[in-house]
Amino acid sequence: MFVNADLVQVVRNTPIEHTLLVVSLLILVSVVTSRLGGKMGVPALLLFLLVGMVAGSEGPGGIYFDDPWLAQAMGVIALTLILFAGGLDTEWSFVRPCWRPAIALSTLGVLLTAVAVGLFAWLALDLSLVEGLLLGSVISSTDAAAVFSVLRARRAALRGRLTPLLELESGTNDPMAIFLTVGFVQLLTRPEASPIDLIPFFLLQMAVGGLAGYGLGRLGVILLNRIKFDNEGLYPVLTLGIVLFIYGATATLGGSGFLAVYVAGMVIGNSEVLHKRNLKRFYDSLAWLMQILMFLTLGLLAFPSQVMAIAGRGLLLAGFLMLVARPLAVFTILSAFRMSLPERLLVSWVGLRGAVPIVLATLPLLAGVERAHFIFNMGFFVVLTSTLLQGTSVPFVAQRLGVAAEEARRRRHPLELVPVENNTTELCEYSVPSNSAAIGLALQELGLPESTLVVLIHRNNAYLIPTGKTRVEPGDTLLVLGDRERLATVREKLEQ
Hints:
Strand order of the largest sheet: 3-6-4-5
Largest sheet: 4 strands, antiparallel
Mean pLDDT: 83
Shape: globular
Oligomer: single chain
Radius of gyration: 24 Å
Distance between the termini: 60 Å
Number of domains: 2
CATH architecture of the largest domain: Up-down Bundle
CATH class of the largest domain: Mainly Alpha
């Protein structure tokens, strides 16, 4: 690994106020453009990359940046926090029905994609077999987060198991791509290395990553509930230290730090933790900041002239990835599971490439691989093409395949319950479906448990303070306060 000496000297000679001014302007521009892009259905990551390229040495900004080590370090830190935030917001009950196909896609699916793309690159792009497989490994993982940002912007969702399937796949497929990339880099830079040596490396990565993530995640739950702070603002700081420790400790032990932080996030997010709602808000904001900084950095690292010089070959590779390699892997894997043809086609199309391929593309640069710049530029171009074509067309494709469903806009209610030690009371919201047997009944006629109370009703974009005589209407969202064990009864009465 290396740090560009010229860059270090430039940074040292630049006044801090100028640096802060430039960084703040880039962040502000990125946030504003993401809002505009959301209305047009353009994934935010694409806009962040473009802002970085415009601000770079070949753009109007004129900021010279050519330090793969710094870009990789920024990417690792950002991905660690983004994956933890994703795990924190993942409900196990939501993804449990489809964890088998999701894990199959995130492991075997990534492997099949990498091999297919690698063979194509070997035959069509004048690369050696190992170089082709390295390129295939770099662009083998997906980034469903960008896809869901588009879906939320279009107020659409996916039916059945598609949404949890894609969420879980996107959260767990990075370790396989990282393992393959590191492995093929070693084969290119160490003549004594053997492909057989990669098998125990992979098993160690996955086993240690999964076990460390679960164990340290449980430890994090204990710490969050046992340590009492007078200032609530210290809880996010504590979790930040926990997350960074989990990544560092797991990587030191030879495991996948990315897998560990994602699993730990799921463990903490699905456990009873003090101030969980505040933690989720904190990490949602932090994840957005990390995405902006990461993609800006990666955009600055790219030289548009070099990327466009390989545009023809890049389009050829992107087309093969989107139309052949990804569908081949998806149909092969999902043939063992009950999924309809439209669902398989949608999963095939939602093969959006994002941050990980670009971060992985810096590894050959740091290792001194002979065709490293070509591999980086190809990976960067594939990400741009995939994001532009697939990211913007997902809602349309979902509609045409008949797998789109309307998603209710997330509401923010004016009440919040802060849990305390040994408290079993929760504040939950339940939506009343149009076919519910509770419609037309007064609240006092529902037969709710004595330890539950409907404190607020959201109806027609307004909040009502109910009484026992208030009748339930279709589309109502009830905010219910009650004992945790008895709230399941409320859900049954409203949704039956």
